[in-house]
Amino acid sequence: MHYGPWLENYLTPSVAYSRKHGSVSDTLNLDVPTGANGGDSSMVLRYLRSHESHGEIGSPTLLLVNCGLHDIKRDLKTGSIQVDAQAYADNLHSIVETGRKLCTTLCWIRTTPVDEKIHNRPQSTFHRFGRDCEEYNTIADAIMDAAGVPSIDLTRFTDQIGDESGNSVYIDHVHFTEEIRRRQAAFIAGWITGYLAHA
Predict the structure, then answer these.
(1) How large is the greatest C-alpha to C-alpha distance in the chain, in angstroms?
(2) Are 152 and 191 in contact (CB under 8 A)?
(3) In what order do the strands lie in the sheet with 151-152?
């Protein structure tokens, strides 16, 4: 949702851009995914399946998909994770299967990093942990590699930006500053442009 406007700007007019739609109210609390917010892997799968049934998504040349940050939310009291590792893997297998019916090429975007010190503050309503983010990226890597799905490594790119700046790249617990969003979009746009030029 955040780097989307920048990505559209970088791709226009050479590439027609679209994404999951929603209202402005969807951005008021990004921790509760509604509308344009993709949510966890179960929600992404439901969204893709609904479009498979109704044909509303069209037939994009390239379909970019990511989920993970909502999956790794942990309950403060029980420590239970929102979508466990096996369910996440099962969902990703189904996302690959369904996504490929909807597009020419499915592409995975690796989940951006979690900084626990910033995220897990006393006022947090749930926790996220870096080890979970790494584990779920590893799960996704294995599934996408085995399926021959290309990946955009937004994880490493964003990590490198943080190392360069020395300043916090976040505006809150997990969402990025406008400059970081712009640079993420430029990175993704560069990958897309190169991919389509050789497709």
Answers:
(1) 50
(2) yes
(3) 62-65, 105-109, 151-152
- What the block records as the tokens of 74 is 């942990």
Q: Report yes or no: 151 and 105 within 8 Å, Cβ to Cβ.
A: no
Tell me how many degrees the CA angle 171-8-159 measures, rounded to the nearest 5.
Answer: 40
| pLDDT at res. 24 | 46
For residue range 37-93, what is the model confidence (pLDDT) as tens digits? 678 999 999 999 988 776 555 678 899 999 999 999 999 999 999 999 999 999 999
Query: pLDDT tens digits, residue range 118-160?
Result: 899 888 899 999 999 999 999 999 999 999 999 999 999 999 9
Q: Which residue segments constitute the domains of the chain, with CATH numbers given? A: 4-198 (3.40.50.1110)
Name the one residue in this structure whose structure tokens are 């297998």: 93
Residue matched to tokens 């179960």:
42
Residue whose C-alpha is closest to residue 68's, from 125, 137, 3, 117: 137
